[in-house]
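Handout, section B. The chain below has 34 residues.
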Amino acid sequence: MREKAVDPMSKKTTKHKHIACHKPQITDFQSFFS
């Protein structure tokens, strides 16, 4: 969880990159998007 080290403007881009980083949690994210 490096959200504190991420800029507020880059936060949105980080969230998308996080999904790719957390492959095992991709299913969790897909459920949220659904």
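Note. The helical segments are 11-21, 26-33. Compare this with the example in section A.
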